[in-house]
From TrEMBL, chains A, B:
Native species: Acetivibrio mesophilus
Claim: Zinc-finger is one of the keywords in the record: yes
Span of domain Toprim: 81-176
Gene symbol of the encoding locus: recR
Family label: Belongs to the RecR family.
Protein name from the UniProt record: Recombination protein RecR
Length: 199, 199
């Protein structure tokens, strides 16, 4: 027998399914919901179902959007000749937050990973090549994650894009700003040395 | 300008309002929701609004329930001559988990706190006295929290209940099991000494 009335037990169970939310936190959240006024509870519940219903992938770049083409692809202020290739829609947000990049994005929705059975045809590489062929692209910046899958994907894409005569770059790997040389792992340090620039 | 499409930004905002959920966690939860199948998202959203809609307070003891009288008050296996007085419905769950107590509960929905302007008439003490007068009660166990408000409430209730000729007890304060004498605060240690029992 559960110690809670059925609707509360169900809510705790649902909260527990979310990442990083254990049983105690789920209980705390559930009781918080019970303490909230009905109107705020409905707002939360609506936000959850609407976020899923109203969000789709931009038909151009694959970013998350609530319209057919995302606000970045639609913007006239963006430089449409530069495409930054990322693995995930979250990475678009990370890039946008630095407020430095003014080009467009291409979201791959994954990275090549033979271990997990994800090949080049499973991620949006075809779509990227189509965009490059159709548009007037001057540079493709590959900003996949600096791990084995991300590097493999970056290599694969560069081998396809470079022959088209388009500048293909990879974001720099090195010591993070504020990081400590002493604690940097060897691969990162080696990459930092390799990528050194004249000052 | 938000970096997220409107429905996502709204969801992140709603998640951030929950206790213990910061901006980063709210983002992670929101993206998790977007990755979930629609049917599971709806289940979560429904659980949230239904928990609030369908839950009410038991008309007898004030515990959270989805029926008029809670399953504890309704149960024929419980000893209706003993009432355990707690501050909150969460405390009922904590007590039930030990599987030792077989009586009924009375939820006060708060504790007397002059600092916060909560007087005896603001919590369900009247209802407790009515239950005691109507029923055949042999013992009232006061299990309010061991802080100033809880102690004041316990004292107040015992002064009202004792003159009715009913055994009134307070749960023991002392060193928690598995605790360390060295690190116990003085008040707890003093209470533990005061409450010593012959072995």
């Amino acid at each position: 027998m559960s110690f809670y009335a059925a609707p509360i037990a169900r809510l705790i169970e649902e909260f527990e399914k979310l990442p990083g939310i254990g049983h105690k936190t789920a209980q705390r959240l559930a009781f918080h919901v019970l303490d909230m006024p009905q109107e705020k509870v409905d707002k939360l519940a609506n936000a959850i179902s609407e976020a899923k219903q109203k969000t789709k992938f931009c038909s151009v770049c694959g970013n998350l959007t609530d319209s057919d083409v995302c606000s970045l692809c639609n913007s006239e202020k963006r430089d449409s000749s530069v495409i930054c290739v990322v693995e995930d829609a979250r990475d678009v947000v990370a890039m946008e937050k630095i407020r430095e990049f003014k080009g467009l994005y291409h979201v791959l929705h994954g990275a090549i990973s033979p271990m997990q059975g994800i090949g080049p045809e499973d991620i949006k590489i075809k779509e990227l090549l189509a965009r490059i062929r159709d548009g007037n692209i001057s540079e493709v910046i590959i900003a996949t994650n600096p791990n084995i899958e991300g590097e493999a994907t970056a290599m694969y894409i560069s081998k396809l894009v470079k022959p088209l005569g388009i500048k293909t770059t990879r974001i720099a790997h090195g010591i993070p700003v504020g990081g400590d040389l002493e604690y940097a792992d060897e691969v990162t340090l080696a990459k930092a040395l390799e990528g050194r620039r004249e000052i």
